[in-house]
TrEMBL record:
Source lineage: Eukaryota, Fungi, Dikarya, Ascomycota, Pezizomycotina
Official protein name in the record: N-acetylgalactosaminide beta-1,3-galactosyltransferase
GO cellular component: membrane
Location relative to the cell: Membrane
Membrane topology type: Single-pass type II membrane protein
EC number: 2.4.1.122
Glycosyltransferase recorded as keyword: yes
Pfam families: Fringe (PF02434)
Organism expressing this protein natively: Aplosporella prunicola CBS 121167
Recorded metabolic or biological pathway in which this protein acts: Protein modification; protein glycosylation
GO molecular function: glycoprotein-N-acetylgalactosamine 3-beta-galactosyltransferase activity; nucleotide binding
Length: 501
């Protein structure tokens, strides 16, 4: 692999990369250099993607982000200079190599229920991939390797803390999830709720944190020499591939870079694995090297901390590689659960390019891939912003009312029923309509909930003892979009979309 000229000052390189990317993606990219050590995490699925495609896609001068009128024009010009006046890249980026470890077991005995639909949507874009878990087997015709095999965790650590590896030991003694654990055990583990320390009552979840550092080494070792970028992402995460390609063009792969959706756990900041995060080859090589030189020390660190993605962040920090914050390009919510008017970290979700969404149901994954492809065809190759996803993908699913549906409304603070018993869906709607800011509501039993934000939500069980019925104030949905466009720029009236660079 081609190396940069001489030694690199890691902290300076990270700061320079953040500044360069912020100039190039002033309103479509989120960036900032910080250091993170430990934190919270759900199960990590890892993709090491080396991308073999044609020309990359980014905004043309006509797209120019001029729709974002609240942004200083100078920043918009810098975007145009960065993306429209840079040399055209003639070579393919690289080959795609995808590596995905499995989930903790599901009630049906499978660790891999999200993998088959993920591969159905992504494998056609990939030339090679690998699946990694804690048991070697074949799933839907795909070979799965045991990432903890060959003493990936030292025998000394396994012997000293047998309870940490009891699940792994029992699984291998039986040879399969179904043979090792009863349906009752699997159902119990699947029902374990999340807490500020994850799902500690699920032994498969506790084991999962031990896979992160071995996974980094496996992904690096298995990658083609031309691999420059590694995208770590869970199997239930949607990745907008064209956006990812345009995004990666902003960065120098010779630098040690670590980019992801920032997440806080008390005083700690790290990249949340579910939203996906990117590690450059130099950063990953440095991580694998530093762990190999102090294996016992890092295994002790993993034992004392509960989140695998934070353990990986800690090792990267030890190499001098800090996190570039990238919310909301990397997003931890699914579109159905998204709060579409959200503003945090000083950034407006609506305006940024949508690169990942997490917690995507298998049937939704195919819908999102089809939507992304259709959008590109119908908008001259334009990249999706979150506002586009709402307008074209979510809004058509919002209706006056839906039975057996929870739109995740919350009890409205300060919203009065006017002394009228809320014993019907219609009365609940009337409460929402009386409050100008109310956009959605739901009714279940004698409970009326209203909310001032926009969400789609999800289907509920029609056979449940208490059925949920949801509604939206549709004329206010249109007003919501108009307000967002007036404040942050019209996404509907672009003259043209991004063209090939």
């Amino acid at each position: 692999m081609q190396q940069g000229p001489g030694p690199i000052d890691h902290s300076a390189a990270a700061a320079a990369a953040a500044a360069a990317a912020a100039a190039a993606f002033p309103y479509g990219y989120a960036g900032g250099a910080v250091r993170g050590y430990e934190g919270g995490f759900l199960t990590l699925m890892t993709m090491a993607w080396h991308l073999r495609v044609g020309p990359l896609f980014g905004p043309s001068s006509n797209d120019s982000q001029g729709s974002f009128r609240s942004k200083p024009p100078a920043l918009i010009d810098e975007w145009e200079v960065a993306l429209n006046h840079k040399p055209r890249r003639q070579e393919a980026v690289s080959d795609i190599s995808m590596a995905i470890p499995g989930n903790p077991p599901m009630p049906n005995g499978s660790c891999y229920s999200p993998i088959a639909p993920s591969l159905a949507c992504t494998a056609r874009r990939c030339f090679s991939y690998g699946l990694y878990s804690d048991l070697a087997e074949t799933i839907a015709g795909h070979s799965v390797s045991d990432v903890l095999a060959n003493d990936a965790v030292s025998p000394a650590t396994q012997a000293a803390y047998p309870a940490e590896f009891a699940f792994y030991t029992q699984l291998h003694a039986a040879g399969s999830v179904a043979a090792a654990f009863s349906p009752h055990e699997l159902a119990q583990w699947a029902a374990v709720g999340n807490s500020h320390r994850g799902r500690q009552a699920n032994p498969a979840w506790r084991l999962d944190r031990w896979k992160f550092l071995p996974m980094a080494a496996v992904a690096l070792r298995a990658s083609p020499p031309a691999a420059r970028w590694f995208l770590f992402v869970e199997a239930d995460t949607f990745v907008a591939l064209r956006t990812l390609l345009a995004y990666l063009e902003l960065f120098d792969p010779r630098l040690p870079l670590y980019i992801g959706r920032q997440m806080h756990n008390r005083d700690t900041l790290f990249a949340y694995g579910g939203a996906g995060f990117i590690v450059s080859r130099p950063a990953l090589e440095a991580l694998v090297d530093v762990v190999a030189r102090d294996r016992a020390g890092y295994e002790d660190y993993v034992r004392r901390h509960w989140a695998g993605d934070a353990d990986l962040t800690h090792a990267l920090a030890d190499t001098g590689t800090s996190l570039l914050q990238a919310w909301p390009n990397f997003e931890s919510e699914a579109p159905r659960d998204e709060e579409w008017g959200i503003v945090k970290y000083g950034r407006v979700l609506w305006c940024y390019y949508a690169m990942t969404y997490h917690h995507i149901a298998p049937e939704e994954l195919g819908e999102l891939f089809a939507f992304e492809e259709r959008w590109g065809r119908e908008h001259n190759g334009s990249l999706l912003r979150h506002g586009d996803v709402f307008r074209e993908f979510i809004l058509p699913q919002l209706v006056l009312e839906r039975d057996d549906w929870d739109n995740l409304s919350e009890a409205g603070v300060g919203v009065s029923s006017g002394g009228v018993p809320l014993d019907s869906f219609e009365k609940c709607r009337a409460v929402c309509e009386r409050v100008e800011q109310c956009l959605r509501f739901s009714f279940a039993g004698q409970s009326c909930k209203v909310s001032f934000g926009v969400k789609l939500g999800h289907q509920t069980d029609a056979a449940a003892p208490v059925r949920v019925r949801s509604g939206w104030i549709m004329d206010r949905m249109e007003a919501f979009m108009q307000q967002m466009d007036a404040k942050y720029g019209s996404l509907a009236n672009k003259k043209s979309g991004p063209k090939a660079l």
